[in-house]
User: Fold Aspartate carbamoyltransferase from Rhodanobacter caeni.
Amino acid sequence: MSPRLRHLTTLEHLPRISIERLLGRAEALRDACAHGTRKLDVLAGRTVLNLFFEPSTRTRTSFELAARRLGADVINFDLGFSSTSKGEELYDTLHTLEAMHLDAIIVRHKEAGTPDALVRHAMSGVSVVNAGDGNRAHPTQGLLDVLTIRQHRPDFENLTVVICGDIKHSRVARSDVHALGTLGVKEIRLCGPAALMPPADEFPQCRYHNDFDSAIEGADVAIMLRLQKERMTSADLPDEAAYFNRYGLDARRLARAATGCLVMHPGPLNRGIEIASEVADGAQSRILEQVGNGVFVRMAVLCEVLAR
Amino acid sequence: MSPRLRHLTTLEHLPRISIERLLGRAEALRDACAHGTRKLDVLAGRTVLNLFFEPSTRTRTSFELAARRLGADVINFDLGFSSTSKGEELYDTLHTLEAMHLDAIIVRHKEAGTPDALVRHAMSGVSVVNAGDGNRAHPTQGLLDVLTIRQHRPDFENLTVVICGDIKHSRVARSDVHALGTLGVKEIRLCGPAALMPPADEFPQCRYHNDFDSAIEGADVAIMLRLQKERMTSADLPDEAAYFNRYGLDARRLARAATGCLVMHPGPLNRGIEIASEVADGAQSRILEQVGNGVFVRMAVLCEVLAR
Amino acid sequence: MSPRLRHLTTLEHLPRISIERLLGRAEALRDACAHGTRKLDVLAGRTVLNLFFEPSTRTRTSFELAARRLGADVINFDLGFSSTSKGEELYDTLHTLEAMHLDAIIVRHKEAGTPDALVRHAMSGVSVVNAGDGNRAHPTQGLLDVLTIRQHRPDFENLTVVICGDIKHSRVARSDVHALGTLGVKEIRLCGPAALMPPADEFPQCRYHNDFDSAIEGADVAIMLRLQKERMTSADLPDEAAYFNRYGLDARRLARAATGCLVMHPGPLNRGIEIASEVADGAQSRILEQVGNGVFVRMAVLCEVLAR
Assistant:
């Protein structure tokens, strides 16, 4: 049995048994909810704080719902996003929050590595959960993605997964690769314009593609990433239509994938840029399941790090 | 018995029995509160989300208090009000929130019809409550207004009500007219500068006035609307003093109304523009009762739409 | 026995017995927390509203935690800080909130005297707690400071306390002087650049210093204030280094104080301006204890004003 996690900052190097325990717990919570359990009290008396240095209403709300459904209190520590809090200033904020006897801090920050820096500087019993740091990691997104896949295709050793879009700047892609790799999927393909691909040696276990038509060939899962529109030009793609033409997922391209290929996207969608509505709203789309699983995964993570 | 409402987007065409049931429930909650009941748990385990695309601290707070006093959890989904969320983007937000298993969405949006569009696109069991859409409807304001009137003057069939101000752009006026009409008041008079009056055929059941002195003559209830100051010039009223002179409610004008005429205003007040302090703070003012009733009406609405 | 407080706007003229009762209650809550009590329900069913006209994430969070740990609901009434709400507009907001049946309003406002104006205009049973008004008072900060001192040095009649920085504009300094004076400390020294010192007759019970080296000589407690950087020039101190050189607390200066001199700061720290990291993070620093005591003091105040 692997030791309980006290923090969750990345899925990289997380043992398979830890990931599977979190997924199993999320599934148990999903089942309880399906049978009518609306609210648990396992974290009654605990306080969880959302410390978001980047705005993200969706992720913040998902964590807030997760914490409340476990009976915890939630504080939104709103920094106005003008703060570029780093170094000593960041650690002073951490220590101030610790001194107020918080139990967990959910942190999002544009600098990669910030959650780990908080873990290193934490003095007391506070737990740190990463809600996204720079281009580096978004571990609860990675977990909810593999939970969603597992629900439909538990045979990971047979699966080919393609992740398409701005891989280079995507913390979602990184956490997905880490989780999928640990769980033993057969093949992971990364696809995007050359300018938006990661260094060639970053993911030796993955296949790199620049042509989406060939990348999606026979894939069992297609994870489409949200494109930051300002990055299209750096990719020599002059407009949205050009990007969609080369890297958007529409019904024609989806037909090249394996039958029943799962369509996933971390949201929010840029319809007509990285994904066509016919696919986003189609029978193979798992996008809303991902959202629902996000709450259960975050409940599972909070239970794990805050268990006594 | 009328069927339970699952959503509340407008009072137009709402059956009298439904309005009266909501008012009766609001009164029962007010009585319970007066006898010391601080908090109920009828909505324990339920989650209500405030989805405000226009800022409104007062209305948001009133809904938040209502939901919490019924034991529900409340999430404020703060969009920063820079979002002009419409169409697909809006529905994606809706579906994302549904996938998180929310029970009710309280929505305010500057586009008329947005709450109904959400109702049409809602896929699961979520309830939609309109907290104000464009110029169209503000149903809980309409309900709290008639609740306040009923408390003092339950004989609606004898009442003359005057609504004065920028009728054209007022969702409050529209919801008031719908509720007052359904409950059978004798006469509704709409009064304002010609440029701020609605089309002549919009309210065939009302009398239109441009002269407030004659409009208030013998009225039993005077509902003063908040003036958006930028609209004064379009009404050919060059300044606040000119507006107050012609359409402001002061003691002299109130004396033309029926004895004991109720003075109402949805707030926040522009003192000295649409209402004089001597009247706003006077013995006939019901303005703070309206605020108190607002919480009870919103509790009643949440009970109605979220009852199992 | 002194009567129960219904409001807390300032520590000036507050009887010693009232201050000591609040400190005693805060200590009892701290002990209960140390023995594992996470949450009480003494304020279940009560609603506390944060009405902040100046941003302060730390103080707002401390009050929010305090209220929730007593079982109260908390509403953040966010005014966007663009509002300069004064006079009638402020009182209309107050009366609106009273009409919603709130139990306590925690108010911060840049105008000195605003909380007392709210107390004078409050019509119902609502309690007002000052979270900082202009340069005038920050009573819960004063209480948490004396609580922190008392924990280490209960022999107030022997203590020399130096407060250093921008005394003139500091509500913290004023509340500290009031609390320390009432509790009978031997000597209070105020130290800062001449331009940042209060009028000579404002604190006749204190000694005024412009030279920090002599002011700290033999002190048992050093309270360092946060410098607003824009005030350095008005103090003829051209830059941060110049300020630190004359008024910053470093190890060399701390060595001039009495052995074991307590180092305090209301936060957030300007490291290298009013305090050196070696001292802020050193063995004599009580800065994080202050933060922790802040929550207990605010719990004690809420219990006091909201007790039935």
